[in-house]
Structure formats: C-alpha cells, structure tokens
Amino acid sequence: MAYQKVNADQRAPGHSQYLDNDDLQATALDLEWDMEKELEEPGFDQFQLDSAENQNLENPETADLNLDSIQPATSPKGRFQRLQEESDYVTRYTRSAPKSNPCNFCRLLKILCTATVLFILGILIGYYAHKNCPSNATTSGTLDLHLYQEILKTIQAEDIKKSFRNLVQLYKSEDDTEISKKIKSHWTSLGLEDVQFVNYSVLLNLPGPSASSVSLSSSGQCFHPNGQPCSEEARKHSGQDLLYSYAAYSAKGTLEAELIDVSYGNADDLKRIQKMKNTTNKIALLKLGKLPLLYKLSLLEKAGFGGVLLYIDPCDLPKTANLSYDTFMVSLNPGGDPSTPGYPSVDGSFRQNRSNLTSLLVQPISASLVAKLISSPNSRTKNSICSPLELPNNDQRIVSMQIQTVTKFKTVTNVVGYLKGLTSPDRYIIVGSRHHTAYSYYGQEWASSTAIITAFIRALMLRVKRGWRPDRTIVFCSWGGTAFGNIGSYEWGEDFRKVLQRNVVAYISLHSPIRGNSSLYSVASPSLQQLVVEGPSFLSEALFLKRATKIEEMDPFFHLHETITKLSGEVILQIANEPVLPFNALDIAIEVQNSLKGDQPYTHQLLALASRLRESAELFQSDEMRPANDPKERIPIRVRMLNDILQDMEKSFLVEQVPPGFYRNILYHLDGKTSQFSILLEAWEHCKLLSSNETIQEALSEVLNSINSAQVYFKAGLDVFDSVLVGKN
C-alpha cells in the first residue's frame, strides 16, 4: 500500500461507527478472545482441501494481490517447528513395573476392555457429529478459489452497462447532489451497511464567464484553446468544452511576452535556454509528460517565467489517438482543499485565502494551436516517423494570453459504505471510485468507475446475504471533487487520519478503470512486485472530455468492464481474506539495491547499508514469512504480529518533504525507464541549475535514514519474534 501522511484528527459530522476510536479499542479487546475461540472450531483452509485436518486461522491482514491463484510456500518449519518428545522420555520418566499377580492382571484386563469400548464409542460419536454438523466454511478466515469464483461469476456485462447508462442520464444535473443520492440509494438497496454522505465545504477554482484566449501579436489573430479563431460561432459550436480548457488554481490576468519553447521543461532544457535568453516574465511553451507537471512548473517559476502554454505533443500519444484539436483541463492543486492545507475542511476550520497556487498564468492548449503559433504544418508524419513540435531557436514569437477564472466555496460530497469484517473488523481495505462533481471536466468517464464498483458490491452482497462475511472490513468510497486535486479523498483522509494510519491495510483504486482496449496494466506498491507494475507517464494529468459515446465505442458490449470488475474483485477478495500479507520484505531490499546501481557518486555508504538491509530481509523472509504461509505451522498470534510488521514496513521510506508532484514514498520511480531513487535524480537536476551540492547532500541523507530505518525495523521485528518464542517455551 502507498501510505499518505495527513495532518488532522477531526471527524466529519457523519462519521461512521466503524471508524470510531472507542469502538476500535473495544474491538481489539474482543479480538483476542475470538482468536482463541476460533482455534477450537474446524474449518476450511484454502491451502488444503481436507477440512478435518485444518484449524480456523484468523487475524490475517492482507492477501496476495497476484491475479493468479495463491500457491502455498514450502516451509522448512523454521521457528514454527513443533517440539518433539525426547528420545529418552520413556526410560527417564516411566515407573518400574510392579510385581505381577492374578488380581492385578484381572484389574488391567477390565481397564483395557473399558478403554477399548470408550474409544470405539468416541469414534462413532465423533463421526456422526462431524457428518451431521453444518460446516463452518462460510465463516472461515480464508476463502478457497471456488468461493471466489462463486462470487465473481455473478458479475455480468449487461448489468454494468445498464448501471452505466442510468448514471449517464444523471450527468445533465447542475450539481452532483442527484448523482450522490443515486449512488447512496443504490448501495443501500444492495445491502451495504452504514452508507452515508460525508460532505466538505471546499474552495474550487472554476472557469470564468468566457473562454480563455491566445493571440499572435504580429498578426493580431486571436485563438481559442482548441485552435479555432475567436468568434461567437466557434464559442457556441464548442459549448462548455472551451470553458473547461483551463488550469485550475492558475494565476489569472493578461500577459504579452515572447514565447520560448522549453520542450519538456527539465533541468537540461532550462539550463540550455537560460544560456541563450533572458526568461524573466516570458511565456514558456511546455510539453506535458516525462516529469510531474507541478515539478516542472516550480522550475519555470524559479527561472522567472510569467506564463505557460501547456500542450501534449502528438508524437507522445499512440498512433491511433488523434487529439490534435482536443482541449483539456489540468489541476495545479497537489491535493485537498487549498484553503485548509494539512487539516480537514470541517465546520469551524480556519480558511486561508489561496485563490491561486502559483504565480504563473497557465493555459492548456491543443496541438493544433501550437502548430499555428509556431507556423508549423499540421501533418508532421513522414515515412511513419513523427516529428515533434518545436519552435526554431532563431524565430521569435510575441503572444498574448488571457485567463479568466473564479473561486467559490462549494460542497463536495463523498459516498462511503461499509461491509464489516467478521474476525478482523479493525483492519480496513478501502476501495475507491469517483463520481461526477459539478463544474468538473470528466465527462462520463466517472460513470465507468462508479458502475464497476457498484457491480462488485452487488456480487459481494449476494454472498453476504447467504451468511458469509470477509475477515476484514471493506470500505467502499465514491469520491467527489477529484478533478480539482482529489479533494474529496484528501479531506476524508485528513478527517480520519489517526484511524486510517493505524488500521488501513490497502487501498484499491478504480479511479480510471477503462482507458483503452489494447492492453491491461496494473499498478502496485513496491512491496507487491509480484504484480505487473506500470510506471506513470504523467500524460494522465491532462483531463480530456470523454463522452459516453466514446466509452461505448471502446467497449460496446462492456466485456472490458466485466473483466476489470472481476480482476479487481479477485484482488479485493484476496486482500480481505488471505491469512498473510503479500508484502514481500526481500523485494523491498532488492528494490533499494537496484535503485543505487549505476554511476552515482556518494552512494558507497548507501550500498553498504542496503546490503545489511537485504541480510535482515532475507532472514525475516525465511524465518518468519515462509513458515507463516504453511497452514500446518501457523500460530495465529504470530501471524497477527507478522502482518503488523509487513503492514508498516514501507513507512520507513516515507519522507516529509519532496519536490512538487513527487511521491513521498521514495521507492516509487517517476517512470519505468529510470531505476534510481527519484529524489536523488531530482537533486542532481537541481545541482545543474544552481551549481551547488547542498541539495544532493540533503537527498542522500534522506535515503540513508530511510534505509537505516527499514533495517532497524526488520531487526526489531525478528527480536520480537525471538522473545515471544522464548516466552512460549
């Protein structure tokens, strides 16, 4: 799981009883009793089919996120080795035989006959009792694959399609109230528990009364962001699309200046440009991609630029994608309500005046408008080779940009529902989707997200009505305000910070489930590298308007929707029911070593520390994780201790301060092409601009402290297990 630190502990007015601190403490006390009680009852275990040979094992945390069937680990028994009787037990502790006589012989014969009769009677009673008693399999701590399939086979494409179209009909509403009510009503009718609204009053940056424009000073030509000439006819033809081609939380106003092509805006690009030109108060022509947008904007701001025209180069898109005339929206908000940074937007909170989050005027434009601004032909493909858009170094363009936006406080609504866990209700698996928020730009793409999560809830609740429950609590969330910087989810996270930091096992996102119809990609935390992991391209920061017709063109029979729902559903079921977390300690250690490979100065000390981390992780993996994956050797309290350690081990790699747009988990790479620590790469980029190594020294210290913290964490975990084992013996 990717952990996000938030800084508040207040609750929303409609907080759930499952997230109440007092209730959680009581649950923790009851849990210890349930652990002992469950061990006395026979049940099924997914690793073996013979129910009579297995015990109910509870208090697991998370299951393997692998979409394939989980295979049991072969254990050498390690520290779970059962104590064997000593070979000289009989000779040391058996009394000497008494002298034989007829009375003693008769007495022994009677005892033997009685014992034989009782033994046979016990077998008969046990046989018929086991035969006639109902199985406790449906409440077992683990589910076999057969039960997974029983749940998932009820998911049908036609049901998802119907749900999608019903949601799209509500899109015409002026606000998201109708959609939120519909989702809440539907989830409640399916049987989900404690479905509620969680509302926050937040500051939104909305389009102005008229569309933004860009003009060429030399000719006086005025263009809308999509490349069409400024005219009333073009504005009416494009409708709301032109209004929603804007950068939320940008500075507003008018700027006329020289246009400077900065390509992707990395440190090398800026260093090259600053040697040739004065960049103060100029307008940057910036390509989206390769690095986080917020990071690139921070570099441009430091370089003195006054404005940015942002676009996507068609050469960075698949050949089948034609978005030359499409406009898009971006948000410059790193997350949450800008007026309450770091704390929740509940009633009575202090509100900061932050109508814009940058001094730059930022305007997204289409590739066709870029071609007009640099006098380039629209077609740049020759011999199947795409030529990137670029402004010649010797050419000078003076452009004028005008941006109009307004800021208003609006209510953002989250819909949250719960399926309480049976044996570990204090452990949460959060499943998140999103719904349409008023004034946002997502079109109907949100409807796919909501329809998929609703389809899984329907399948799950059909089984719940038959008496089954997952081990851990599943929290289903439909977030509002996503287009403006994940505002709804951030505020909820800040609101319930303390509970979530302690109890959340994993978060499964169904934010954008259908983006195309060619390949399947999955993204997971570094400790879950048994999954196929996709590196971000940062092109997804652009929010294109996807209409319902486009989504149905990609998936006319909704078979893709059905497949994604079933794959995601199997992941959720495994996480909610499997006994041992799939977080792999050794994979983290290997990832650290790989991130230090290459020609990187100042890393010798880090490599030595990474080697010690790997040794501790290997010992932890072999001595604790392998035995825990063997049903015959699991001890419930040790499994619980193990999962607690696995759940928090990636937190060692969270850092407080990172560059804008970067992940706080330093194990996350910026893309799939680079294996080095992202904060070290950024520090080197920073050094190129400032000719100082202070930043790189700070970054090296952050990495060193993280590796050392992880090594100490694993070692402390092993020491705890040793202490428990000694106490048991």
Automatic annotation (TrEMBL):
Keyword presence, Phosphoprotein: no
Keywords for the protein's UniProt record, in alphabetical order: Membrane, Transmembrane, Transmembrane helix
Disordered: annotated span: 1-21
TM spans (from-to): 108-129
Record flagged with keyword Transmembrane: yes
InterPro entries given in the database record: PA_dom_sf, Peptidase_M28B, TFR-like_dimer_dom_sf
Full protein name: N-acetylated alpha-linked acidic dipeptidase like 2
Origin organism lineage: Eukaryota, Metazoa, Chordata, Craniata, Vertebrata
Gene: NAALADL2
